[in-house]
Amino acid sequence: MRIAEGTAQLNTGALIPLIGLGTATRNLNDEEIKAAMTTALQVGYRHFDTASYYGTEHALGEALNSAFRSGIVNREDVFVTSKLGNTEHDDPIAAIKNSLKSLQLEYVDLYLIHWPVKMRTRILFSQPKEEDFLPLNIKSTWQGMEQCMETGLTKAIGVSNFSSKKIEDLLSYAKIPPAVDQVEMHPLWQQKKLRECCSKHNIHVSAWSPLGAPNNPWGSNVVIDNPLIQEIAEKHGKTRAQVILRWGVEQGVSVLPKSFNAGRIAENFQIFDWSLTLDDHDKISKLKQGKISTGQKFVNSTTSPYKTVEELWDGEI
Ligand code: A2P
Fold it and tell me: What is the pLDDT of residues 42-60, one digit of tens each?
């Protein structure tokens, strides 16, 4: 099978578009979110990344269904990812059905365990308390994820924020191997070890916060403001964001930049008719590494399965 340009093939055989719109937001209303998604569809995005915890499934469902009705796209032309929230591990089937209701879809293309963390309280951005954590049993959660796929509610299943060790552990008992691990990845956090592990097991890597989440309290401008990125952008006559995203797709990962601005949504999509040089790659590969989002909030010395961030990432930090 010929792989269409701008896509990668998952271990299920399905194609995943290499650029998708990330949709996590804290402060926009449904109309603003829907408008951004409609812009993205018009610009050509065919991959949307949401999660039950983002609160954007409903707006995405509205945007997609308007696009289906007006004939801009058909359901089979778009790749939709959603995620099992940390409070939803006990019943993935019920969780995915809720997501599908909000999305007004019969299936998603990919359903991920959002974090290797189980909680009793629905918290995404703020700091959980000790009593919010529950004991984690990824094996039983994964069985529920497998049922989601077996019942046709999702075409593929995977994980997010899993280290190489957690991937290896999961593979030791999974009936259906994960198709994707979605993790923080950008030129300053290149995930070389994890990507080797995923490549060995035919697991596709998707990059969240591929720009490093500039101008966000949980992110940093260090990626977009990196002098080497600036130099390469000037050389190619591209923007810094385009260089960063192009680097990601040339690494074979799918990139999920978030933007709710029409101009930047369009800008981020213009990464397919030019390429970086080997010298660009060589220089970027030597950049000093540092993870921006450490997951510190999921760590405590009493109730979390992780006493330190090193434990959360199994040393890959
Ligand atoms: P905005 O919505 O105003 O465009 P990430 O995807 O790494 O998490 O980064 C998301 C942040 O990056 C958003 O706050 C978004 O702001 C900003 N952003 C998205 N695209 C670009 C771009 N092309 N140039 C600069 N900032 C961008």
Answer: 999 999 999 999 999 999 9
Name residue 118's beta-bridge partners.
134
Q: What does pTM read for this prediction?
A: 0.97
Those residues with Cβ within 8 angstroms of residue 124's Cβ, 6 or more apart along the chain or in another chain: 24, 53, 54, 85
Cα separation, 156 vs 46, whole angstroms:
17
Provide the CATH number for the domain formed by 7-312 in this structure: 3.20.20.100
Whether 2 shows a pLDDT value over 50: the answer reads no
Which of 43, 291, 65 shows the shortest CA–CA distance to 191? 291
Pocket test for ligand 1, best of 206, 229, 264 (most atoms within 8 A of CB): 264
- Asked if residue 204 lies in contact with residue 8, where contact means CB atoms within 8 angstroms, the answer is yes
- Could you tell me which of 32, 33, 37, 8 has the C-alpha nearest to residue 21? 37
Provide the 3-class DSSP secondary structure of residue 233.
helix
- Return the domain boundaries, the chain: 7-312
Q: Does any ligand 1 atom lie closer than 6 A to the CB of residue 213?
A: yes
